[in-house]
């Protein structure tokens, strides 16, 4: 199907006929003009989202893995210590993942340069992500990792979204203001 303005053209071997598309004529079909200003760069938002996602994967894997291990093997630590240690695990995993991506990805940095670049990333962004994830997880599940519970997976999804959204504006800001990726 081809869309031409507000009409769909349907091709068949014998005829070409047109019918109105799903958009009523009363609605405006023009795109809204972009908001001028600092926060309106689509390319910077896309890059910030990619950078934030890369960090989110490492943080989430490390955070939930450490939380699961510590709850299973060391429950006497208590939830506060477990969540603090799991945050450290999330940041560490994020750094390891980023180092590997910088080494083998598009950048092809040497291991030392990749590790230095990853270590020079924004700790503010990573800690914001970890705090947001853990606060939401604690609020919804009390910090408990229960792989067999649908409630856990729903809470994990919500906390992961919170972990993505919390540092996103900061990552965008760093890209626009300094031309540097945080991750």
From TrEMBL:
<feature type="compositionally biased region" description="Polar residues">
    <location>
        <begin position="18"/>
        <end position="32"/>
    </location>
</feature>
<keyword id="KW-0472">Membrane</keyword>
<keyword id="KW-1133">Transmembrane helix</keyword>
<feature type="transmembrane region" description="Helical">
    <location>
        <begin position="152"/>
        <end position="173"/>
    </location>
</feature>
<feature type="transmembrane region" description="Helical">
    <location>
        <begin position="77"/>
        <end position="97"/>
    </location>
</feature>
<keyword id="KW-0812">Transmembrane</keyword>
<dbReference type="Pfam" id="PF14342">
    <property type="entry name" value="DUF4396"/>
</dbReference>
<feature type="transmembrane region" description="Helical">
    <location>
        <begin position="109"/>
        <end position="132"/>
    </location>
</feature>
<dbReference type="InterPro" id="IPR025509">
    <property type="entry name" value="DUF4396"/>
</dbReference>
<protein>
    <recommendedName>
        <fullName>DUF4396 domain-containing protein</fullName>
    </recommendedName>
</protein>
<feature type="domain" description="DUF4396">
    <location>
        <begin position="45"/>
        <end position="180"/>
    </location>
</feature>
<feature type="region of interest" description="Disordered">
    <location>
        <begin position="14"/>
        <end position="36"/>
    </location>
</feature>
